[in-house]
Amino acid sequence: MLNTGLLKFFAQPLAGVMLLTAFTVALEPVNPVAAQQAGQGAGIRSSYALGGGDRIRVNVFEVPEYSGEYVIPPGGGVNLPLIGSVALEGLTTEQAAEAIRSKYARFLRRPIISVNLISPRPINIFVAGEVTRPGAYSLNLQGGAGQDPGVQYPTVLAALTTAQGVTLSADITQVQLRRRSTSGREETVTLNLDDLIKTGRNSQNLTLRDGDTIFVPTSRNFDIARARNLAAANFAADPNLPRTVAVVGEVIRPGSYSVTSGAVQGGGNNDTGAPTISGQATVTRALQLAGGITPQANIRNVIIRRPTRTGTEQIISVDLWKLLTSGDVNQDIIVQDGDTIVFPTATEVNPAEATQLATTTLSPTQIQVNVVGEVKRPGTVDIKPNSSLNQALLAAGGFNDARASSGKVDLIRLNPDGSVTKRLVTVDLKAGINEQTNPILRSNDVVLVSRSGLAKTGDTINTVAGPVGTIFNILRFFGLSF
Question: What is 4-119's CATH topology?
Answer without folding.
Answer: wza like fold (3.30.1950)
